[in-house]
Structures
1.
Amino acid sequence: MKIISFSNEEWEKDFLSKHLPAHTFIFVDGFMQDRTDVSDPDAEIVSVFVSSHVGATEMDRFPSLKCIVTRSTGFDHIDLAEALKRGVVVSNVPTYGENSVAEMAFALLLALSRRIYDSYKQVVETSSFSPKGLTGFDLKGKTLGVVGTGHIGVYAIKIGKGFGMDIVAYDPFKNDALANELGFRYVGSFDELLGMSDVITLHVPHNEHTHHMINMDNIEKIKKGAVLINTARGPVVETIAMVKALEEGILAGAGLDVLEEEDFLLDEDALLHMEHPNGEKLKNVLANQYLIDHPRVIVTPHNAFNTKEALERILAVTVENIEACVSGAPKNVVKSS
Ligand code: NAD
């Protein structure tokens, strides 16, 4: 079978070719929406990562498409309704990185709570070894609000317990047995979590229900001085609401692995060449620069998944997903948002 795979590192190309020798891989650099020069009437499988957007126009370029295999947990970059309409199966990697992403959430949190970046910058730039002005805060005894108690959220809860934090969680699908076992409690509403958490960490998928879950209408409900950590997806938080919260001291800081319109940070040309850039997108692009420059915000480039171990797990499951698609019994099929 012919497989078109976008945006692979060299070692990934070797891994996929070695583990699926019976198939023909065509590796394409760049993102699927940008590589309009790449089309194939015979390719039955396309493999992508999160910066490739797969909609009707992209699917049109591969008329024999049977499966879209994404090398990620999130699948909000793929138009599921369009795939369904065409009978194209979408497979993801459901559980590769619960520890990897939760560890990153705490890396961002600790960087803020212990002023790691400021401390490092001071030592490197001024050679000053004085701790003056670098006072942080303890995690022990603080309330951690975990939004979404799936694979990653639960791992974040376990880590938070290790730090001696009190943990509250919000998820429409409660797991009371797990809450008892791990020693956390579900709050009745999202607003309740916002009002009582010293640290809010987001672990929900991005879909129509979680889009702008933190927004201009509820931002003031956040406990004054809280820290927000987002390793989920940028659009779960309305960017301008986050800017307002930082300006008004509602948020003391933010650790962001993901941003709304983060694709334009990867590819600025795309913004310049957009025929009709909409006002909200442009505003978010500017607001992202404000966040990046903000002294109490740490931004990382959608990197939470990026550990050696997680990448190996992602590719192992991707190989299984491709094999399953070829055999006609697809697995890890994404059903709906
Ligand atoms: P999961 O499906 O195991 O868990 C998601 C949880 O969110 C579920 O328990 C679900 O019930 C809950 N949820 C859904 N809607 C909700 C809502 N409105 N309010 C509260 N909870 C809600 O997913 P996961 O493996 O834990 O991953 C979570 C997300 O993390 C992914 O969808 C992806 O977007 C993101 N992610 C980011 C990176 C990265 O590199 N930054 C890597 C992997 C995953």
2.
Amino acid sequence: MSPSRVYYITGGAQGIGLGIAQALLADGHRVAMTDIDEEALSAAAERLPHPDHLLTLPSDVSDETQVANSLAKTVDHFGRLDGIVHNAGIADPFHGSVEQLSLETWQAYLNTNLTGTFLCAKHGAPYLRPHGGSIVLMASSRALQSEPDTEAYAASKGGIVALTHALAVSLGPDIRVNAISPGWIEVGDWQKPNRQQPVEHRDIDREQHPVGRVGTPEDIAALTRFLLSKESGFITGQNFVADGGMTRKMIYAE
Ligand code: NAD
């Protein structure tokens, strides 16, 4: 990966986004990190290496003005933009039964997870075009399979997978667009201090993954780096499932 590219990451202050930001900074790139949680942004800035290569921007990805302004500030600050990682999302897939699901909750999932994706692409594309940019969108293995009471989350992530190929066709050849569908990624120790969770997995949790373990933000960061880089220059419009093989393993109740 060539050094000193500029990347914009949404929801970068915790979890998978924080892992991606850490990896890109370690590679020598410059990172603009947005998040709706200002306390988490401050905690992330203290934790990350190379503070001079990091710009933190409070921004709600479901708000068009905030997305447009944070992208403009990124380019004002660093002088260019090479890639966008739209990772922010309402990450809890469970909202209760569909009969009880309020329209307000349904729309909250759609607004953050799916409309946020559209807004990042709409306002980021003009900055990316001159450099042959790359967009990476965070979907989920729940776009492909479900547990009960996850309709809004599943629909939002399925929408991202569809938007990925639509955007790839519209924005190519200048901009490539790909999605990552993580499976179970443990983010308990990648939170702001008052949200940290002890990381404990049972044998049954590990065994449902053919690779023998639950995933980490570093696993998703490794794939993101590749999809942002020129090494993936022949790949666009795809959805990559990174789940330790979980969605390939058949499980029958005993
Ligand atoms: P997380 O909660 O640890 O981090 C998400 C970050 O997004 C938080 O810092 C949060 O403040 C921020 N955020 C939430 N709403 C926002 C908004 N409107 N605007 C800006 N920032 C906002 O979650 P995570 O587990 O790291 O999930 C990151 C992404 O990966 C999400 O899109 C999630 O759906 C997806 N994902 C996660 C997993 C998993 O197992 N962790 C699996 C599949 C997909």
